[in-house]
Amino acid sequence: MKDSIELDALDWRLLDLLQADASLTNQALAEAAHVSPATALRRTKRLRESGVIERVTALLTPAFAGRGLTALCEVTLDRQGAEHLAAFEARAVAEPRVQQCWRVSPGPDFLLVVWAADMPGYLALTQRLFTQDANVRNVKAFFATRRAKFAPTVPAP
Description:
By secondary structure, the chain is α+β, with helices and mostly antiparallel strands. It folds into two domains: 9-49, Arc Repressor Mutant, subunit A (Orthogonal Bundle); 62-143, Lrp/AsnC effector binding domain/regulation of amino acid metabolism (RAM) domain (Alpha-Beta Plaits), CATH 3.30.70.920. Helix content is 38%, strand content 19%. A four-stranded antiparallel β-sheet has the order 2-3-1-4, covered by helices on one side. Helix 1 crosses helix 2 and helix 2 (26-33) crosses helix 3. The mean pLDDT is 92.
């Protein structure tokens, strides 16, 4: 975030509404938050400019692209120097099939959430991302059988 910003109850109400449906018009947002349209516009602009709102995006239903495979992959590297961690992270982040990349501790070095259309697609991804990297020591993959919850929201305090 650009600056440290204090959030009040109205900011959190606006953020909750936008996290639930970012396609709300300013008028609808203002009505739902019980404020004037000018206030809603001014507040959301401040939240965007300060970096509290990182970006606005559309979430697609996974079944829309074919059922596909979602895998959670624990990745352990041989060498954990800062440059080695940064190099693997950069490669993982650049891969479109990697939906999330987390550097974790203790245990493995990274936890990745990856999506592939099918098992051959997953195998191609593993070749690009893991097998061709001599610093990848171990990969343990868990395949999702059902998504019970997916909520990319930050709850209000």
